[in-house]
Structure formats: structure tokens, C-alpha cells
Automatic annotation (TrEMBL):
Stated name of the protein: GTPase Der
Repeat is among the record's keywords: yes
Binding site for GTP 2: 205-212, 252-256, 317-320
Entry similarity comment: Belongs to the TRAFAC class TrmE-Era-EngA-EngB-Septin-like GTPase superfamily. EngA (Der) GTPase family.
Length: 455
């Protein structure tokens, strides 16, 4: 590295930064209008989230990456809530529940100016049951005079209330320090307990693609080993199912089986649930209704799984209903609409007839293998050396940026850091990714490539 003009410390830092595995997850929960979205904006340091959203507009993004004091984590925003037929307590509880399930720690936001309400108490009960670490945020303390309001919230029994003004940033630093203490380094919920245990599958897809039918099919024909883990207000959340002689954990199956019928906000619940399931899983089996045109909603779900860095299998369902013409158009749609996951293993199934159910497990295993692939540094650099010699980066401004060396900083999914002598264009990065995929068969997994440029 030093020979190539890189400072060794920079190199190590870059590798460490890129090498993180799955990030721990922080959920931000609370009643409507207490300032959750404002706080999430603060935490992620962008104005990207959702306070500006018009009421009734479905939010498709619920998970964001954040960093505080050099540590990275994910934030699940539950601010997209809308009051619906369930009534306020049940609705707040339902949305909080999905988020809490997927979280390693929770920020519970209360409006200090209003004080604790019955709805807040309902969420407190939920938090107690879930047993996850909680940081209590007494929001809307915009100045010193509000501190007394915050101290009343000791009565919730959740420990010290952190007086915060999400709007102005007051107190958010101290609160985030407490968040970091509460958050495990790695996501325990998702992975820590999974070591040596069953692999976790999130079966996701838009409504009516056949998720519950598929689950019933696989759980019905094979033996259902045991219903693990009681949900908080719902029944079993994660289910162990034996497939192909191996026990798998299907996460959030209750969400699949019992659909919450809501007039408003149903799409939002669906998004939140999908995001939560994806966070808890190692591999996402994305179910797509082959009989219908691939929709924006399908694409969003795919993007969610890719962004979360999960292994991915695409299952085209309702194959029993496809005639020759539809099959032809489906292939065209897959090419144009789902090009971003052309690397994902694919199965054409029918939950109704059981067609190709046996192909599901090999596809999942392939995707997980890709997800865990580690390329030895020597092999990677031999490959990069040949690639760069045969296909140099285009010359820009009289200079030719070169990839000098690289290393795989992490797995699950594979993450690479490449060190370059100048700015590497997006097209060339994509070219490198394509060639890496061809060479090392990262089937079924997103791969991350970051490029460090020599100063
Ligand atoms: P959510 O429904 O919990 O996501 O709440 P929002 O983030 O949408 O905030 C609801 C309202 O409270 C908005 O008008 C915010 O501007 C306001 N708000 C949020 N945080 C603060 C704060 O710290 N101080 C004050 N005064 N208002 C706030
Ligand atoms: P979910 O909302 O994704 O859980 O979808 P469901 O499992 O409830 O299925 C929605 C509808 O599609 C139901 O009427 C199912 O009977 C039907 N369905 C599911 N899978 C198949 C399939 O493979 N073939 C056919 N023909 N219908 C299916």
C-alpha cells in the first residue's frame, strides 16, 4: 500500500469502515405527532425523511442508515402511521410492534409538553414485554424551561428521560450516546443468536402474490417442527419449517398469515412489516405474481432487500395460470424491470399445485453461499491486475485513473474496497462489479464496492 502512495492507516481505516457486517437496528416508536420523523431526520442528519409528506401518501422508505460517534446503525422510522379502523391505541401498538420486533434497541419518543398519555402507557407495556433496551426521549424540550416536563416522565418506569428538542437538535447528542450504549455492536436479534442455528428466511412480496399460500404449502407438506417465540400481541412470529431435510426459520410468518385489514395505511403497514422481516432475515425470498405485470411495488420490495444487503431469491408464483403469451411477456418484463437483480437465482413456482417447490431450497442455498463468499486477497488482486491491464479506465483530463489494489473487507454481503490513483467513473465501477460476479459467482447476493482514491 505504501508503495502505491497510500498511507497504511488510511488503508486500514477504509477496510474497517467497509467491512462491517449487518448493522444493528434502532427503532423509533411513539404516538403520532410526538416528533418521531423529526428525530429520525436529526439522527440520520438529512432532511430526507418524511415530515414533509402529505397525509395519506404511502411512505415506501422506513429504514435509514445512520452514524454517531463513528458507529453505524440502521434506524427504522415508524412515523408513517395513520389513524385507522383499529383505533388509536391498537394502531400505535401495531406499528410499534413490527418495528420493535426487528430492533436491537428502541427509542421511545414522548411529547414532554403533553406528558404521558394512555396511548404512551400502551406502548410502554409493549416495550416491557419485548424486553429490548429502551432509550426514553422526552421530546419538544426546546429550552431549559421544558426540563421539568421531561422529569415527569420518570413515572413511565423506563429509566431516565432524555430531554430533547428534535426540532432544534438540543440534547440529541446525549441521547444518541445513550443509544450507542444500548445498541449491540452487531445485530444480536438478527444474527448473534443465529450462529449455528437455523438460517432465517423472509418471505416477502406485495399483497396477493401468494405468500400465505406458499407458506402453507411448505409448512403443510413438510413437518412443522415447532412454533417458536410467542408474539407480543399476535401469535407465533417466527416459525421453524423443515425443507429439504434442513430446518429453516421463516421470520414474521404471523404477519403473512394474519393480514391486518386496514382501510388506511395498509400499504404503510405492509412496507414496515416487509422492512422488519428483511432486517431479521439472512435471505429474502421475494415472491412475484407471474400472472400480473411486474409493478413498481414489486420493484420497491426488491430494492428494500437489496439495500438491506440480504441474499435474494426471486420466486415467480402462480405459474399454473401462465399461458405461453404471458410467459413471453413476463420474460421481457423481468429483463426491463428487474435488471438490478439479474444475479438472483430464480424459481418458477405454483403455491397452488406445488410446482417446483423442491427447487426453492437449492436456490436459497445458492444465494446464501454467494452472500458468504470470501475472495482471498491474492486471488482478488491477480484478477484485478489482469482486468485493469486488459480493460484500462478511460483517460480523463489527460490522466488515467487506475485501480491499484483491492481487498474484500467483509461478507454477508460481500464488501470490497478498491484503492485507485484517481476518480473511478460509475460505468467502470459497474464493469468491475460485472466482472467480479462473472469471476467469483456471487449468485443471489448484492455486492458493495467502495473506492478509495489516493490523495
Ligand atoms: P411524528 O408523527 O411522531 O413522526 O411527528 P413529526 O416528526 O411529524 O412531528 C410532529 C410535529 O411536531 C411537527 O409539526 C414537528 O415540527 C413538531 N416537532 C417535532 N419535534 C419538535 C420539537 O422538538 N419541538 C417542537 N416545538 N416541535 C417539534
Ligand atoms: P398473500 O397476500 O401474498 O399472502 O397471497 P395469498 O396466499 O393470500 O394468495 C392470494 C390469492 O392468490 C389467493 O386467492 C390464492 O389462492 C391465490 N394463489 C396463491 N398462489 C397461487 C398459485 O400458485 N396459483 C394460483 N392459481 N393461485 C394462487
Amino acid at each position: 500500500a505504501a508503495e502505491e502512495g497510500f498511507d497504511l492507516e488510511d488503508v486500514e481505516g477504509a477496510i474497517e469502515a467497509a467491512g462491517h457486517g449487518p448493522l444493528p437496528v434502532l427503532a423509533v416508536v411513539g404516538r403520532p405527532n410526538v416528533g418521531k420523523s423529526t428525530l429520525v431526520n436529526r439522527i440520520i442528519g438529512r432532511r430526507e425523511a418524511v415530515v414533509e409528506d402529505k397525509p395519506g401518501v404511502t411512505r415506501d422508505r422506513v429504514t435509514y442508515e445512520a452514524e454517531w460517534a463513528g458507529r453505524r446503525f440502521k434506524v427504522v422510522d415508524t412515523g408513517g402511521w395513520e389513524q385507522d379502523v383499529l383505533g388509536i391505541d391498537a394502531s400505535v401498538a401495531a406499528q410499534a410492534e413490527y418495528a420493535i420486533e426487528a430492533a436491537d434497541a428502541v427509542v421511545f419518543v414522548v411529547d414532554a409538553k403533553v406528558g404521558a398519555t394512555d396511548t404512551d402507557e400502551a406502548v410502554v407495556r409493549l416495550l416491557r414485554k419485548a424486553g429490548k433496551p429502551v432509550v426514553l426521549c422526552a421530546n419538544k424540550v426546546d429550552g431549559p424551561s421544558g426540563e421539568a416536563d421531561a422529569s415527569y416522565l420518570w413515572s413511565l418506569g423506563l429509566g431516565e428521560p432524555h430531554p430533547v428538542s428534535a426540532l432544534h437538535g438540543r440534547g440529541t447528542g446525549d441521547m444518541l450516546d445513550s443509544v450507542l450504549e444500548a445498541l449491540p455492536e452487531a445485530p444480536e436479534q438478527s444474527f448473534g443468536t443465529a450462529i449455528g442455528g437455523p438460517r432465517r428466511i423472509a418471505l416477502i412480496g406485495r399483497p396477493n402474490v401468494g405468500k400465505s399460500s406458499l407458506l402453507n404449502k411448505v409448512a403443510g407438506e413438510e413437518r412443522v417442527v415447532v412454533n417458536e417465540m410467542a408474539g407480543t400481541t399476535r401469535d407465533p412470529v417466527d416459525e421453524l419449517i423443515e425443507l429439504g431435510g434442513v430446518t429453516w426459520k421463516f421470520v414474521d410468518t404471523a404477519g403473512i398469515r394474519k393480514r391486518v385489514h386496514l382501510q388506511q395505511g395498509a400499504d404503510y403497514y405492509a412496507s414496515l412489516r416487509t422492512a422488519a422481516a428483511v432486517e431479521k432475515a439472512e435471505v429474502a425470498v421475494i415472491l412475484i405474481d407471474g400472472s400480473e405485470s411486474i409493478s413498481v411495488q414489486d420493484q420497491r420490495i426488491v430494492t428494500m432487500a437489496v439495500d438491506a444487503g440480504r441474499a435474494i431469491v426471486l420466486a415467480y408464483n402462480k405459474w399454473d395460470t401462465l399461458d405461453e403469451e404471458r410467459r413471453y411477456y413476463l420474460e421481457r418484463e423481468i429483463e426491463t424491470e428487474l435488471g438490478q437483480v439479474a444475479w438472483a437465482p430464480r424459481v418458477n413456482v405454483s403455491a397452488r399445485t406445488g410446482r417446483h417447490m423442491e427447487k426453492l431450497v437449492p436456490a436459497i442455498e445458492t444465494a446464501l453461499a454467494g452472500w458468504e463468499t470470501r475472495v482471498p486477497t491474492g486471488r482478488l488482486n491477480a484478477f484485478l491486475g489482469e482486468l485493469v491491464a486488459a480493460h484500462p479506465h478511460p483517460i480523463r483530463g489527460g490522466k488515467q485513473p487506475r485501480i491499484l489494489f483491492g481487498t474484500q473487507a467483509g461478507t454477508k454481503p460481500p464488501r470490497f474496497v478498491l484503492f485507485a490513483s484517481g476518480f473511478i467513473e460509475a460505468g467502470y465501477r459497474r464493469f468491475i462489479e460485472r466482472r467480479l460476479r462473472e469471476e467469483f459467482s456471487f449468485e443471489g447476493t448484492p455486492i458493495h464496492i467502495s473506492v478509495r482514491v489516493r490523495e
